[in-house]
Write a structure and sequence with these properties.
Layout (H helix, E strand, L loop, with lengths): L6 E7 L2 E2 L3 E3 L9 E5 L4 E4 L4 E3 L5 E5 L2 E5 L13 E6 L7 E7 L2 E8 L11 H17 L8 E7 L2 E7 L4 E2 L5 H8 L3 H20 L2 E2 L8 E3 L6 E3 L6 E2 L2 E2 L14 H4 L4 E2 L1 H16 L14 H10 L11 H12 L2
């Protein structure tokens, strides 16, 4: 049962994203939209029972690039890092991101401190702290497939992290056109990317961490040269973690059942579930029920099905065990 006024972070209807609404679910009638709530829960609901919250928006321009914020902010310090060629102003995290170029080299900037218009977290101090605590994770989990963090510092009344620019597109739900294009790639190419996801998360485990909030937007893909990389490891954490009263933040279709429960232990076995669920996202239109939608072999289907067992004891017990089973049947 959902409470009236519960914050909705995303709504999907006919493939379109509707951010920034407040739920008023007085009754459950005919359902026609998939809704994600800010506590990580999700449901199919009647759009008639939702009232839209129109965020405040002001326009600013840097180097000829116009973007939106909730309140105007002094970004004069950005020139230190280069000339802006792209702005990402609709992140749910509350940070605003810039693509900049300096001396022929491109960089990605992530800044916390300004009031963005689409944030699910609106406390600026919390947004700054979340970015700060992500910095050591990029050092600890350094990997050829993880975007490279160069620097981080306090500046402009907030905090900024600087990364090498990766020339690729986000292919998650925040970019529906790119998501559709990526999922339409041949299964063999998607399998190559998926197996990169597995290899990276085996590395994460080896480094003593677990993945929290790995989602379909964490993969960047270049449709021209087929290179790919991973980003957004801000919530990854040291093994193991105890979830809060309402679970942990993350994509409900990918996170394990224990991550959605309050006061549960989150371990590597939870990540096994996420890897299996990701396989269904890549190769079965995110459908874990309809066998006919699976586009790979029956043997790979069984490996992925085992990984998404509701009971932890029924899954592969490590990422490497999952990879081993996946690779053994992949070569047949």
């Amino acid at each position: 049962m959902f409470t009236i006024g519960q914050r909705v972070s995303e709504i999907y209807k006919t493939g379109k994203l509707y951010p920034g609404v407040i739920a008023e679910l007085r009754e459950r009638r005919e359902t026609d939209a998939y809704v994600k709530f800010d506590d990580g829960d999700a449901a199919w609901v009647d759009v008639a029972n939702l009232t839209e919250r129109q965020p405040n928006r002001v326009q600013q321009t840097i180097d000829g690039i116009t973007f939106q914020l909730e309140e105007e902010y002094d970004f004069s310090f950005i020139s230190k890092y280069g000339k802006v060629f792209r702005v990402f102003d609709n992140s749910l995290s509350g940070a605003i991101c810039f693509g900049v170029e300096k001396s022929g080299k491109r960089y990605f900037l992530k800044f916390a401190g300004a009031k963005t218009w689409n944030a699910t977290c609106t406390n600026i101090e919390d947004i700054i702290m979340m970015l700060k605590i992500s910095v050591p994770k990029y050092k600890a989990l350094k990997h050829p497939l993880l975007i490279n963090q160069i620097d981080a510092e306090e500046i402009g009344g907030g905090f900024i992290a600087v990364y090498d620019w990766f020339d690729g597109e986000g292919c998650g739900y925040m970019h529906p056109e790119m998501q559709k294009k990526f999922l339409a790639l041949p299964s063999k190419e998607k399998q190559r990317v998926y197996e990169g996801i597995l290899a990276f998360h085996a590395h994460v485990i080896d480094c003593g961490y677990i993945a929290i909030d790995f989602n379909n937007g964490s993969t960047l893909y270049n449709f021209d040269n087929r290179n790919f990389a991973f980003c957004d490891i801000d919530f990854y954490a040291k093994q193991c973690q105890i979830s809060g009263w309402s679970g942990v933040w993350g994509d409900p279709s990918l996170k394990s059942p224990e991550e959605s429960r309050g006061y549960s232990v989150i371990t590597e076995v939870s990540n096994v579930y996420t890897m299996g669920a990701t396989a269904f996202y890549f190769f079965a239109e995110n459908d874990k029920v309809t066998r006919e939608k699976w586009t790979l072999s029956n043997e790979l289907y069984e490996v992925a099905r085992k990984a998404i067992n509701e009971q932890r004891s029924g899954r592969q017990q490590t990422i490497k065990e999952f990879i081993g089973e996946w690779e053994r049947v992949s070569v047949r």
